[in-house]
Records
---
Amino acid sequence: MLPSALSDFVALIFPRTCLACQQSLARGETHLCTACRTQLPYTDYHRLAPTDNPLARRFWGRVPMEYVLSYLRFLRRGRVQHLLHQLKYQGQREVGTALGQMYGQELASHGLGADLDLILPVPLHRRKLAKRGYNQSDTFAEGLATSLLVPWSAEVLRRNSFTASQTRKSRAERWQNVAEVFEVAQPEAVRGKHVLVVDDVLTTGATLEACAIKVLDAGAAAVSVATIACAEH
C-alpha cells in the first residue's frame, strides 16, 4: 500500500497532466488521458496497402519508398498541434518519446518493423540544435526504437547548412531549400540495410525525400519514412 500512497501524494503535489489537453491524469494513465487517446485523429495508414496510402502517393515517381507512415493527422488548433508545440517549443521531450513508443507498439502489432534495420531522425542544424537544446525528431526515433526493438542513431545523417523555415514555401521552394543540405556521415551504417527516416511532421515531403535520396545513394537496400503527424493536402 505504501508505494501507492506515496504515488498519490506525489501526484497531489506535482500533478501529472495529459500532454494533449493538460487535464490531470487519472491513476493508471500515462502521458495521455483516456479521452485524448480515444479522440486523437489517427491516420491508420499502416493498415492500408501502399497503393491506397495517400501519403505514399506524394513520393511516387520521385523516390522509391517501402513504407510511408504517419501516426496522426495535423489539425490546426487541435490536440495534435498542441502536442507538437509542446514538443518543439516548450521543452517537453517526453511528448516525442511517448508518441514514438505508442506508434511503435501499433506498428509492431501489425507486423511492421520486423524488416527494419536502422532508424534515423532528420537532423537539425547545430545552430538550431543549440537554441532548442534537443532535436524533436530524436525523441520520436528513440520512442519508436524502444517499441520496435530497432537501433537508432543521431550521428549517421548530418545537416550541413542552415536553411530558412519551410513553413510558407511551396513544394518546389521546399525542395530547393533542402536538396543538398543533408549527407550520410557514416555510409557503412546504412549500406545494405532497410532504413527508416523519421521527422515530426510531413507536409510536402521535401525534407524526407532529400534525406531518403541521400540514404539510398549511400547504399541502403531500402528506405521508409515515418512522422508523428501529417498535414492533409
---
Amino acid sequence: MLDFLAGLYRTHADDLATVIDGQRELLADGTITPQLDDVEAELTYLLLRHHRPSQVVEVGTYYGWSTTWILSALRDNGSGHLQSFDLVDHVCGTVPEELSTGRWTFHRGDLRETVEKVPADTGYLFVDADHGRRFARWYLEHLFGRIATGTPTSVHDVFHLPRARPFTEGSEVLRHLERSGTGWFTSSRAAAPRNLRALDAVRAELGITGVRGTSRNPMIFFSMP
C-alpha cells in the first residue's frame, strides 16, 4: 500500500501542489474551518484522481474543507459528481462556485431520512459525520449495504490514539471490517507512525508541504467489504 500511495504522490505531484496552493488561499480567507489533517487530505485527493469515480458520496461537510479537496480532484479528473449529505448547510456559503458548478449536489437533512438519494453507482464513499456508535451501527447496515463491494471508502476520526476509543464510531467500523476480513490503511501518527514517516519522506522528496502543518491523520482507508 505504501508503494502504491508513493506512486500516486509522484504521478500527481504537480497537480497536488497546485491544489495545496488553492487550499491555502481558502484557509487564509477564514471562511472554512478545516477538519482533515494534511496527509489524509492529500491521500483523499490522490485516491480520487486514481479511481476516477463518476459518483462520490460525502457524509459530513461542516464548512467544506473535505468538500473542496474532493471537488478539486473531480475538477482535475475532468469528470465526476459529488453528492454531499449533512444536517447543516454551512458548506453552501464556503465552497467556491468554480469548484461546485456542474459537479456538486448538497442534500441537507438527516442521512437516515435521505439515504435513498445515495447513488447506486457510488464510486467513492467519504464519511466524516456523527462519531457516535449508534450512528455508526446505523450506517454500517443501511449505508454500507447500498455501496458495491470493492468501492474505495474512508472514515475519519478513527485513530486519535494507538487504538480506537471503545464505544465509538471507530471501534464499530473496525469491528465490522475485522468480521469481514477487510484490511485497512491509516497514516495516523498515533496508530501507524511508520506509515506516516514513509509518506512524509516521499512528500519531502517531492517538495510537498501541507496546508495546515497538522499530522494526526486519524482517517482509515479501505475497500468496501
---
Amino acid sequence: MDFFDLQPAEWQALILTLKVASVALAFALPIAILVAYLLARFRFPGHGVVNALVHLPLVLPPVVTGYVLLLAFGKKGPIGSFLDNTFGVSFAFNWTGAALAAGVMAFPLMVRPIRLSFEAVDPKLEDAAKSLGARRFTAFLTISLPLALPGILGGAILGFAKAMGEFGATITFVSNIPGETRTLALALYTATQTPSGDIAAFRLTLIAAFVAFAALIASELLARRLRNRIGGADA
C-alpha cells in the first residue's frame, strides 16, 4: 500500500471533517458575532457571568462538555427529545451532533478575537451615524461590522481549525461511528489503537496538519487584504 494512497475510510473521514467544521462554523459564527458585539458594547447585569459562560468550554475538560451535550441533546434529554419529536432532528450519535459539539468547543475561540475587534472600533463612529438618523442596526452593519472584519475572519479561522481538530466532546456525545461521526481526529485515534496502524496514523496526521496550515495561511492573506482595503478607504 502506497503511503500517499488514502483509503476510502480516510477519504470519508476527511470529507466528514470538512463538512462538520463548515456546518459548525456556519451556525456558530453569526451567534459569536452577536455575543461578541453585546459584550463589547454593552454593560448589563450579569455581564461577567455571560462572559464566563461563553469561555467555559475552554477550561472544562472536553469530555465534560460532551457529556453535558449528551444529557441536554440526547434523545432522552429535554432539548433533544423535543427536537426529535417535533422536528425529527436528532443529534446524538449523528454527524449533526458532531457539528454541534465542534461548534460549542470552537465558540469561545471565535468570540474572543471578534470582541477585541469590536472594542477597537471607536463607538463614536456609531454615535455619529445615529445622530445622522441611522438606526443602531444600520450603524452596526455599515460601520462596526466592516471595520471588525479582520477580527471576524481571524475568529472564523480559529473556530474552523478547532472544529476540525475537536475530539473529546465529539467522541463522548456522538461516539466513533465509521462513516457517520468518525472525523479525522477520531480516525487518527482509531488508527493508533489498531495493530500496524502507524502508517495510517502518520498519514492522517499529515493531512490534518496540511489542512490546518492551509487555512491559517489563507486567513492571513485575507486578513492582510482586508486591512489594506480598510486602510485605503480611510486614506
